[in-house]
Amino acid sequence: MSNSAALLANNAHYVATRPASHNVVSQTILGECLIIACMDPRVNVEQMFGLEIGPGGVQAGVIRCAGGRPQTIMRSVLFAQLLAGVKEILVVHHTHCGGLFITDEKVRPAFNHTESCGGPWKDAAPFAATQFYLGGFGKPNETDEESLKRSLREDVQSLRDHPLVKSSVVVSGYIHELETGRARKVEC
Ligand SMILES: [Zn+2]
Fold first, then answer.
1. CA 94 / ligand 1 centre spacing (Å)
2. 98 C-alpha vs ligand 1 centroid, how far in Å?
3. Do the Cβ atoms of 59 and 50 come closer than 8 Å?
4. CA–centroid distance, residue 61 to ligand 1 (Å)
5. What spacing in Å lies between the alpha carbon of 26 and ligand 1's midpoint?
6. Which of 23, 71, 125, 146 could bond 142 through an S-S bridge, CB–CB 3.0 to 4.6 Å?
7. Model pTM score
8. Bridge-partner residues for 62, per DSSP?
9. Ligand 1 centroid to 38 CA: how many Å?
10. What InterPro entries does the record point to (predicted)?
11. Ligand 1 mean position, distance from CA 173 (Å)
């Protein structure tokens, strides 16, 4: 069974068994809180923070992207502000993130060689020549913990400084420990 076939089979089961409270057509689609987290499937934002759609549930908008870095998803952040009046943004990075290993510095030169870095690519030259932003955040002179904290502080500050993010929005940063499930607040 292909991945998509398996997913659709699961969806059919979901349709048949989902609780009535999940009939959300008439409900608000985003909360006043927005969570930005890595797309890594090990980072289960809904379970980690107990998000639940429906009356009495803790709701938040969730944006998933590589590394949980806001630089490439500002369009979604601004949509959330406009649609839901977001008052708080949580940025969540996590231990063992691929962003610690896949950095722009490593990948950009590698794209010059079609055999390396997962090639062949349709056209390696444009990537290598441009300043395409991957947002990897590992540094050879830092521990993973130091890289996570530094990148988190960069991302929180970039949202606080962003001209289109309201000054009243509270932005905070967290490291999600895959080992324990904990979301550990980092002073930013
Ligand atoms: Zn990650």
1. 6
2. 5
3. no
4. 18
5. 33
6. 146
7. 0.86
8. 35
9. 5
10. Carbonic_anhydrase (IPR001765), Carbonic_anhydrase_sf (IPR036874)
11. 15
3-state secondary structure the chain: CCHHHHHHHHHHHHHHHCCHHHCCCCCCCCCCEEEEEECCCCCCHHHHCCECCCCCCECCEEEEEHHHCHHHCHHHHHHHHHHHCCCEEEEEEECCCHHHCCCHHHHHHHCCCCCCCCCCCCCHHHHHHCCCCCCCCCCCCCCHHHHHHHHHHHHHHHHHHCCCCCCCCEEEEEEECCCCCCEEEECC
119 vs 116: CA distance, rounded Å: 6
Predicted confidence pLDDT, tens digits, the chain (188 residues): 889 999 999 999 988 988 776 666 655 556 689 999 999 999 999 999 999 876 777 888 899 999 999 988 999 999 888 887 899 999 999 999 999 987 767 766 666 555 555 666 666 565 555 566 677 888 888 999 999 999 999 999 999 999 999 999 999 999 999 999 999 999 99
